[in-house]
Amino acid sequence: MPIRLSLMFLALTLVVTGCASPVRCDEDREEPYMDPLTGEPLDMEGLAPRESRSERFRIPSEERADRSRANPCLAQAPRIIPPPTPVDREMEEGTAFADLRYRLEIVEDDDFRERAEASTIRLRLGGTTPRVRGFDAGVAFQTTQLIGEPRFEDTTGRIGDFPVVRDPLDTGVSEGWARYISREGVFEAKIGRQSINLDNERFVGSDSFRQLEQTFNASTMRIGQGEPVRFDAAFISRANRVLGPNHPDRFAAKADTEATILEYNQVFGDRTMGLYFHNMRFTDERESHRNLGLRFHGRLPWSETLDFRAEYAHQEALRGEGPERDQSYTHFRLSQNREDWRWFVGREHLSGDRQDAFQTPLASLHTHNGWSDRFLVTPDFGLIDNYIGVETQRGEWDFEARYHDFKLDAGSSRYGQEFGLRAGREVFGELRLDLKLSHYDGGDPEFYFGDDYAGNSTRIWIGLSARFEP
Questions:
Q1: Pairing relationship of beta strands 414-427 and 431-442 according to DSSP bridges
Q2: What does UniProt give as the signal peptide span (predicted)?
Q3: Which member of 26, 236, 285, 331 has the lowest number of beta carbons within 10 Å of its beta carbon?
C-alpha cells in the first residue's frame, strides 16, 4: 500500500445518537471539513484539484479512496482524515511500473530468398519520485533480448540475406528526466532524456510500436495543459532512434541536432487550430530544414458525428543546409464515429521534385504511410498516400482494416498498394494479445532510382504485452 509522506491532519466530528457534537448533517448527509484547532468550518476555496497525470508515468489518484471514511455522516464511527490540499502544500506519492512485451515478427519479401523471423522480448522498468512542491523526476530502463536464433537483419549489418526487422537488441536507460509542474498544472517544464509526442506524431513522436522507442535529449515546456490555449516548446539536442545506438549510420542511431520546436494550439468549441514552427539543424546537413505549418481538426460544424483534419506545411532549407528547393505537405482526412464502429478516408501528400522531398525524420514513422515501413524516408519523387479504413469493436475484440494507394508526386506512376489488418483484445487481466498483418504489392519500378518500392512483401506481427503499476 502506498504511504502518505506528509499529512495535514484535520478532524471531522459526527452526530449520532448518544454522541455530543455541535456539528449537524444536512438533508444530503454532507458536512463541511472542520478546523481541529478552532472548530470552525474550513474555507475550501483556493484548494486546487489534482491535475491530470501523464499517461507514461501515471500517479495514482484519489479514486480508490473509501468515500465513507471521507464523510463522517456516512461512516459508522468518527474518522480523522485529511481534506483535499493544494498541490504546493503536499508531497505527492511516487510511482513505479513494469512493462513486458513479447513480439514475433515474420517477414516475407520478394527481394530475399530467406524469410525473416524475429522473436524478441522487451522489459521496461521505471517510475517517478515523490513530487515535492511541484518537483519530481522519472527514470525508465529497458532491455530487448532475442529468443531463439537470429533469423532477421536488425539494421546493424551483422546478419545478411534476411529482410529487415527494426527491433535491434539493446539494454540501457530509455528515459531520465526532472520536472516541475505548477500548482494548477497549467505550467510544466521538463529536462533530460524523455518521450515527446506532439499532435498526431507526424513530425515529432516516440514511435512506440517498435520495441526500442525513440526518445529525445531535450528541454521542454508546456503552458496551458487542459486549457483552451496551449503552447509547447522544445529544444532537442539528440534524437535516440529506434534503430539503436549500434547502428553503423550515426544519423540512424543517434541524430545530433539543434532543433527548436514551437507549437501553438487553440480550441474553438469542437475544433482545434494548430500553428507550428520547427527549426531543425542536424549534424547530417542533408537532413536540416525548417517547417512552418497550420492545421485544423475536430468536428464538422454541421454534423454531430463527422470529424475532419486539414493541414498544410512548408519546408525549406535552413541556413543553406537541407533541400535545394522548398517542399510542401498537405493532409486531408474525414472520419465518422458510429455506435460501435468508425470509418475514415484521407489523402496525405509529401511533395518531391526528383532531387529532394518533404521529410519528417523525427516522426513516429511506423504510424504513417502504411505498416510495411516502405516509406520511412520520403522518396525523391515525393509521395501521395490515398487511404481508407474502418475500425470496430466486437465483444472483447477490437479490429481495424485499412487500404493505401501510393503514388508518385513527380510523375504519374504508382509505387504500389498496401492492405492491412489488425485485431487485439485483453486476456487474463493485465495481458493483451495483438495480431497484425500488412501486405505490400509493389508497382512498376521504371521511374525509380532502384527497385526499393517494386517488390512484394508480407509482414505478420503476433504480440503479447502486460503493464503493471503497483
A1: antiparallel
A2: 1-20
A3: 26
Distances (CA, A) of 256 to 277, 282, 366: 19, 6, 21
Domain range summary for the chain, segments of one domain joined by +: 1-86
pLDDT for 464: 97
Picking from 455, 435, 460, the residue whose alpha carbon sits closest to that of residue 445 is 455
User: What is the residue-wise DSSP string for 200-233?
Assistant: TSSSS---TTSSS--EEEEEEEEE-TTSSEEEEE
Q: Cα(65)–Cα(70) distance, rounded to whole angstroms?
A: 8
Residue 412, pLDDT score: 78
Q: Could you give the CA distance from residue 144 to residue 6 in angstroms, rounded to a whole number?
A: 38
Question: Quick check: 152 and 107 in contact, CB under 8 A?
Answer: yes
- Is-contact 443 413, C-beta < 8 A? yes
Would you state the cell numbers that stand for residue 327, as one nine-digit string? Answer: 517542399
Best CA proximity match to 170, nearest among 152, 139, 146:
146
On whether the CB atoms of residues 289 and 280 are closer than 8 A, the answer is: yes
User: Cell 498483418 belongs to which residue?
Assistant: 437
CA distances for 68 relative to 20, 29, 260, 340, angstroms: 21, 11, 50, 37
The reported pLDDT for the residue numbered 80 is 37
What cell does 385 get? 498516400
Q: Please say whether the beta carbons of 60 and 18 come within 8 A.
A: no
**Whole-Å CA distances, 333 to 168, 229, 310, 328, 348:** 34, 23, 7, 17, 8
In this structure, the chain runs to a length of 470
The one-letter amino acid code at 344 reads: F
d(CA 328, CA 251): 23
What are the tens digits of pLDDT across the range 392-420?
Answer: 999 899 999 999 999 999 877 889 999 99
Cα–Cα distance for residue pair 18/365, rounded to 1 Å? 69
Low-confidence stretches of the chain (pLDDT < 50) are 1-31, 36, 45-89
